[in-house]
Specification:
By secondary structure, the chain is an alpha+beta fold. The chain is built from ten helices and six strands.
Length: 230
């Protein structure tokens, strides 16, 4: 009988980074208990621990694929099917990481404030920004960002600035930065390589491991600054 690879086998850097983060949460929470009290330590753990949504069903994955008109890349499908969606630093308004649950990803489209092209990359950009912001992108470029890229989560930075987690039809993954104060020329320069399919992308393991490590670093910085809550 063929053994199904575990998530640690499929995404070893991500799972190791997540384990390190959660071990560090526990270690810092013990220090918070000594500095403050047990209640503050418990609040610290809630603010910085990973929130796991649980595995997604095969039906949910099929519904997402039907919505976007393409297959999920196998590493993302494996992640959805084993760990599921997760959030890091969920109580931290400015510095959280979200891999969205499928129901949440699809339900966003029901909001009147969400662009009709959601959850394509173009739809996500126009949800956090607006169609007018991206007027410098030619129709063919906007179509490429709509037809070839899908957003499944983000790393939030400040206000509306965030790095969108996206994949393309070829199964490659991309970090796509959206900055609220950038201008039309910035958008054209930044997204043109994506529109022209000139970026090879990165793998999911590398992408998520880096975002988890940054969340851990942010947590440690906040602890060192004496800010024990998110």
């Amino acid at each position: 009988m063929q053994t199904v690879p575990s998530l640690a086998d499929r995404l070893p850097r991500f799972t190791a980074a997540l384990d390190r983060h959660e071990a560090r949460v526990e270690e810092l929470a013990r220090q918070v208990a000594r500095i403050e009290d047990e209640d503050t330590a418990e609040d610290f753990g809630c603010a910085f621990s990973a929130v796991r949504q649980g595995p997604e069903s095969a039906d949910a994955i099929e519904r997402l694929e039907a919505r976007i008109g393409m297959r999920l890349p196998e590493p993302l499908k494996a992640l959805y099917g084993s760990l599921g969606a997760f959030s890091l630093l969920p109580e931290n308004r400015m510095r959280h990481v979200d891999l969205l649950a499928i129901d949440r990803l699809l339900s966003w489209a029901e909001s009147p404030d969400v662009d009709d092209a959601w959850p394509s990359l173009m739809g996500a950009l126009c949800t956090f920004g607006s169609r007018q912001e991206f007027g410098g992108l030619k129709p063919a470029s906007q179509e490429a960002l709509t037809e070839h890229y899908v957003v499944f989560g983000w790393a939030h930075h400040r206000y509306e600035d965030r790095t969108l987690l996206a994949f393309d039809r070829d199964g490659a993954f991309h970090n796509v930065v959206y900055e609220h104060d950038a201008g039309e020329e910035d958008w054209v320069a930044r997204y043109k390589p994506l529109c022209q399919k000139a970026l090879s992308g990165i793998d999911l393991d590398e992408m998520l491991a880096a975002h988890v490590a940054k969340a851990t670093q942010r947590m440690e910085e906040q602890f060192n600054e004496g800010e024990f809550l998110g």
